[in-house]
Automatic annotation (TrEMBL):
This is 3-methyl-2-oxobutanoate hydroxymethyltransferase. Its main location: cytoplasm. Catalyzes the reversible reaction in which hydroxymethyl group from 5,10-methylenetetrahydrofolate is transferred onto alpha-ketoisovalerate to form ketopantoate. Homodecamer; pentamer of dimers. It comes from Halobacillus dabanensis. Belongs to the PanB family. GO terms for biological process: methylation; pantothenate biosynthetic process. Mg(2+) binds at D43, D82, E114.
């Protein structure tokens, strides 16, 4: 399994960090088999596997339930888990208790928190307690209703400057890496060059030290459409949908099961009439 020092070295040596989300046992096994550097147990699971329309309804128990399954599927991969909506805003004590529970019970190697300001202080406390932390700025989906929708952040002087300051502040708080979501690539590049910790981009350009995408998006698995920054690598909706339809059709028209799927016995052994 990789560790914090290796991720730093990867940045220094310009070796890209490949990260993908994972929410359950099969996706975790697949990610580990593909040698991803980091798995993100993202609260995007609210949408991808629980069917909510944002990450806001996701609870700590949801995260732990899925996080444990990911750990069983990818025991040897570095796993980052999202602290969900409002689980790190109420008080420092509440934050630390939630963080302890998520960290100990899932076996993830780091926690990810969205935002800056007060959140940066929470990050400092977690690091001080011995819990590695990953930041997340730019488009922060837990604040979608404050941001006014899912849109690119930091396109003007003021907001670009603020994002750079936030990134610097998060590094100073002791974060081991930072996710940059939905920012112009020029800003992604500038933040990447100004920080010594790795930047992991999602819609933040190729100059980031690493990239992260949502598992269900790259596979087109259960998702209706994908954002501009996603590259899809297959069409699971189509491929898997056809397979399920074929099964249903074959049951209906008696094509399935065939002889090879069937057990037999000596008919003399059947009970008498
Ligand atoms: O939950 C998630 O999938 C994320 C990524 C989009 C970075 O936080
Ligand atoms: Na997330």
């Amino acid at each position: 399994m990789r560790n914090k020092s290796q991720f730093l070295r990867m940045k220094q040596e310009k070796e890209k960090i490949a990260m993908i989300t994972s929410y359950d046992y099969p996706s975790a096994k697949m990610a580990e088999a593909a040698n991803v550097d980091m798995i993100l147990i993202g609260d995007s699971l609210g949408m991808t596997v629980l069917g909510y329309d944002s990450t806001i309804p996701v609870t700590i128990d949801d995260m732990i339930h899925h996080g444990k399954a990911v750990t069983r599927g990818a025991p040897d991969t570095f796993k980052v888990i999202d602290m969900p909506f409002m689980s790190y805003h109420i008080s420092m004590e509440d934050t630390l208790q939630n963080a302890r529970k998520m960290y100990q019970e899932t076996g993830a190697q780091a926690l990810k928190l969205e935002g800056s300001g007060e959140v940066t202080k929470a990050m400092e406390s977690l690091v001080e307690a011995g819990i590695p932390v990953v930041g997340h700025i730019g488009l922060t989906p837990q604040s979608v209703n404050v941001l006014g929708g899912y849109k690119v952040q930091g396109k003007d002087r003021v907001t670009a400057e603020r994002l750079l300051e936030e990134a610097i502040e998060i590094e100073a708080a002791g974060a081991m890496a930072i996710v940059l979501e939905c920012v112009p690539r020029q800003l992604g590049e500038m933040i990447t060059s100004r920080l010594s910790i790795p930047t992991i981009g999602i819609g933040a350009g190729k100059e980031c030290d690493g990239q992260v995408l949502v598992y269900h998006d790259i596979l087109q698995y259960g998702v209706d459409g994908v954002p501009k920054f996603v590259k899809t690598y297959t069409d699971s909706n189509h491929i898997l949908g056809e397979a399920v339809q074929s099964y249903v059709n074959e049951v209906k028209n008696r094509t399935f099961p065939e002889e090879k799927h069937t057990f037999t016995m000596d008919v003399n052994m059947l009970p008498g009439e």
